[in-house]
């Protein structure tokens, strides 16, 4: 066989192993923008990587890692209601509602469990919710610099006490963060409404999520250690760098406890040169660790 023919066959095999389909899928009268990859080659009971995007973001934000991962496992991506091509729905995207929507989407496409959920930022909150409402469907959990769904108001206030902010100012900042009304933004409803849902969850110390079971599966957390707030936008009232360090330390302490709550264990990976978009700043590290999870689950 000539080198030219061998090269063509190799490229063809690579293409077939990660065959992608992009389409609109209707569930309960709402059209969702969906992308799947490698589902046609799925083995029996092989976990599917299911991605939850960051706040108001489309699934294209995952493009640094999904093509590579599709060579190891089937991939399912979608845009939540109101994001990019998905229909706009003027309903609050609560964790329970988003979990139910995702379950219906997967059922409509006959993408059966088990799933490895991968959530970035607000997508981490939604991944935690889905895992809690449908724990038997989960094979693994991957949180990429998630919004902290383990945080309480007391945790948040303690960060500022540690860096020397007065009690009066702490109370003022808490009121501004959680109890100052925000005018609805119909033109950017998806990101606005998801932000409101996050605020409401923070008011209750994430009571809805903390009441849900944690699946006994491997858990990964990726944490970005680089402060990305430009110097001109940093607080003039307190040391913003120290605030960021204390917040990360506080988050990671609770995330380690979350990992330990699973009998299957996991890992917390701190990447000092990555910002909030860890999967874009250090795609190789994210891909490598998710691959290790996939390989371990297949043994």
Describe the model.
The protein has one domain (21-298): Alpha/Beta hydrolase fold, catalytic domain (Rossmann fold, 3-Layer(aba) Sandwich). The protein is 42% helix and 17% strand. Strands 1-2-4-3-5-6-7-8 form an eight-stranded mixed β-sheet, sandwiched between helices. The chain has 299 residues and is of the alpha/beta class. It has eleven helices and eight strands. The model is unreliable at 1-17 (pLDDT under 50). It comes from Dyadobacter chenhuakuii.
Q: Which fold name fills CATH's third level, the topology?
A: Rossmann fold
Determine the fraction of residues in helical runs and give it as a percent range: 40-55%
How many domains? The number is 1
Briefly, what CATH class?
Alpha Beta
Number of helices: 11
Approximate shape? globular
Q: Main β-sheet, in a few words?
A: 8 strands, mixed
Unreliable residue runs:
1-17
| Annotated CATH homologous superfamily | Alpha/Beta hydrolase fold, catalytic domain
Cα distance, first to last residue?
Answer: 35 Å
Helices and strands, in order, run as HEEEHEHEHEHHHHEHEHH
Please indicate the percent range of residues in DSSP E strands (runs of 2 or more): 15-25%
CATH A-level architecture: 3-Layer(aba) Sandwich
Q: Strand order of the main beta sheet, please?
A: 1-2-4-3-5-6-7-8
Radius of gyration: 20 Å
Mean pLDDT: 94
Structural class: alpha/beta
Number of strands: 8
């Amino acid at each position: 066989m000539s080198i030219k023919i061998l090269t063509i066959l190799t490229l063809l095999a690579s293409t077939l192993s990660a065959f992608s389909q992009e389409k609109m899928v209707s569930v309960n009268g709402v059209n969702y923008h969906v992308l799947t990859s490698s589902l046609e080659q799925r083995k029996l009971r092989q976990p599917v990587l299911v991605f939850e995007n960051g706040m108001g973001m489309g699934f294209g934000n995952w493009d640094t890692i999904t093509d590579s991962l599709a060579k190891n496992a089937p991939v399912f991506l979608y845009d939540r209601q109101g994001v990019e091509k998905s229909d706009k729905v003027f309903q609050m995207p609560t964790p329970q509602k988003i979990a139910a929507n995702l379950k219906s989407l997967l059922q409509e496409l006959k993408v059966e469990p088990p799933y490895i959920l991968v959530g970035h930022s607000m997508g981490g909150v939604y991944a935690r919710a889905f895992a809690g409402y449908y724990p038997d469907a989960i094979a693994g959990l991957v949180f990429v610099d998630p919004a902290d769904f383990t945080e309480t108001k007391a945790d948040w206030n303690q960060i500022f006490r540690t860096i020397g902010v007065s009690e009066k100012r702490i109370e003022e900042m808490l009121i501004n963060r959680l109890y100052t009304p925000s005018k609805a933004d119909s033109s950017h409803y998806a990101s606005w409404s998801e932000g409101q849902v996050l605020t409401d969850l923070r008011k209750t110390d994430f009571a809805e999520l903390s009441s849900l079971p944690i699946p006994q599966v491997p858990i990964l957390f990726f944490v970005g250690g680089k402060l990305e707030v430009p110097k001109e936008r940093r607080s003039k009232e307190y040391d913003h760098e120290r605030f960021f360090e204390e917040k990360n330390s506080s988050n990671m302490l609770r995330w380690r406890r979350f990992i330990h709550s699973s009998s299957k264990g996991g890992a917390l990976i701190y990447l000092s040169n990555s910002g909030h978009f860890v999967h874009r700043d250090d795609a190789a590290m994210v891909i490598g660790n998710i691959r290790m999870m996939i390989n371990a689950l297949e043994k």
